[in-house]
Specification:
Elements (H helix, E strand, L loop, with lengths): L3 E4 L2 E4 L1 H18 L1 H11 L1 H6 L4 H28 L15 H11 L4 H20 L12 H19 L7
Antiparallel strand pairs: 1-2
Amino acid sequence: KPFLCSIGGLELSVFVPLGIILLIISYVVLYKTRFGLRLRACGEHPQAADSVGINVYKMRYAGVLLSGAQGDIRGAVGGMAYIVPPVQTWNFEVGVAGAGFLALAVMIFGQWKPFHIFGAAMFFAVFKSLANIADSTFLAQLHWSSNIYNMMPFVASMVILAFTSKNSMAP
């Protein structure tokens, strides 16, 4: 209960609005500020950035520090979201069950752009949630094992990446 918030008549985890706020802040900082333009320029073409007087080493250190801080924050929030829900038993042998692979697939499918990554994450989240709701929806009539629903995000990621990774260029 302490991590739930009510927006209108909708009850959400507090991590949903927090994630949306972080998405908007990341977009604004990277694409609408002078610092973001310089940071992206130093990553894409450091010689060109250096030729116009930007201290490339300073910007790279700033980028590493910011990405490390964001990684720590997102890791902490993700860990809390993973551990906080009340469950009867825990099985820590499986770890995060391939979430790192899905995170890489989301980055490639989202083409390293914040809102595209958000859309890709929502796409994979739908498949990830099928395993949780399969028993109580029309999917129960298919009489499939829950393992098939657990595999769906990975199968979908391979199919999607097979078609989209040719056109995707890393920054």
